[in-house]
Amino acid sequence: ADIEKGTYPHFMLKEIDEQPFVMRNIISKYKDDFDKIKLDEDIRRAVMGADRIYIVAAGTSYHAGLVGKQMIENIAEIPVETHIASEFLYNMPLVSENPLFIFLSQSGETADSRGVLVNVKEKGFKTLTVTNVPGSTLSREADFTLHTFAGPEIAVASTKAYTAQMAVLAILAVDTANARGKEMSFNPLQELAIVANAMEVLTDQKEKLEQVARDFLSVTRNAFFIGRAADYYVCLEGALKLKEISYIQAEGFAGGELKHGTIALIEEGTPVIGLATQEHVNLSIRGNMKETVARGASPCMISMEGLDDEGDAVVLPKVHTHLAPLVSVIPMQLIAYYAALHRECDVDKPRNLAKSVTVE
Ligand code: G6P
């Protein structure tokens, strides 16, 4: 059946709003009768047997892969490298003895990712595709598939597929940790339910986020997103969302790298969006924000409850640190949406972009 927008003006807004439901859907699909993680035994074995994981992806999926690397390394303690699909074959890493290749792809059709899949399969390496489209090329050609259960994503700018990918990777990470006999205090199925509620709180703040977009992004030519640790990866995604649909030149930076070049671009009124969801980087990112303000920047701080300060533009409801990226991206998606709307851009079909790039 054709997917309808219903009462929504754009698919993108609809898909942003669907994220809490997607989380609950993922929980139900990955839960067994005893409220434990349900996962294919062969996949479990493949991940367990890997001495190193290589995540390969493009665009927004690549950004999910960066977060996934952190999750798997921190939770399951398996080394992970995340690679841009189109670069992988030019910059082939020295592959470990028992690698597992994970292809992250909403569509399962991205040619750059497929190019890598074909190459590593020839070498006899194990492959797993994490995708929203189980019958897709990458899914059919890999040894294993994990479904992200986000439902069809129509808007070119990816939203719910990104959070769904990270949710599935978190479940995979914990499952692997469990299988390796690690004591886990972190139950991803419970924590994702808390994430779903937090997402709902944020998608209910549309008016406020529209105002943030109006205040910070209505006339600017450029914008910067800064964060550290996992927040940095979400900043890359926040900047990509804004570029894709509003055509504002936006870049995500690691807070500490600002002073090594990018700060030269800060002028009177340049919007700088700061993100702090991780306690160990809260003070340093706030320090970076001050450095930009001293050079004229308009600061827009997004922080997590408990780390918030007076004057922060958006305060995110508290969720587990590992899952903070699933929540902190929501206001960025909405801010990008409203910025594009105010600029009268074609939100669902931005110029020059395709939903899925099937040429190399
Ligand atoms: C295109 C889309 C992006 C997407 C990327 C990877 O460039 O415009 O939104 O992130 O492809 O797509 P995939 O389907 O492999 O996740």
What features would you describe in this structure?
With 360 residues, the chain is α/β, with parallel strands linked by helices. The protein has 13 helices and 10 strands. The strands form 2 sheets. A 5-stranded parallel sheet has the order 2-1-3-4-5, with helices on both faces. Strands 7-6-8-9-10 form a 5-stranded parallel sheet, with helices on both faces. Helix 2 runs parallel beside helix 8, helix 8 packs antiparallel against helix 13 and helix 9 runs parallel beside helix 13. The chain is globular, with a radius of gyration of 20 Å. The chain binds 6-O-phosphono-alpha-D-glucopyranose. 6-O-phosphono-alpha-D-glucopyranose binds next to helix 4.
Question: Strands, helices and their partners?
Answer:
Blueprint: H1 11-17, H2 19-29, H3 41-48, E1 52-57, H4 59-76, E2 80-84, H5 85-88, E3 99-105, H6 111-122, E4 126-131, H7 137-141, E5 144-147, H8 160-179, H9 188-203, H10 206-217, E6 222-227, H11 230-246, E7 249-254, E8 271-276, H12 279-293, E9 298-304, E10 314-316, H13 324-342
Parallel strand pairs: 1-2, 1-3, 3-4, 4-5, 6-7, 6-8, 8-9, 9-10
Helix pairs in contact: 2-8, 2-9, 4-8, 4-11, 8-13, 9-13, 10-13, 11-13
This protein binds 6-O-phosphono-alpha-D-glucopyranose.
Low-confidence residue ranges:
none
Q: Helicity range of the residues? A: 40-55%
Order of helices and strands: HHHEHEHEHEHEHHHEHEEHEEH
Structural class: alpha/beta
Number of helices: 13
Whole-number average pLDDT? 96
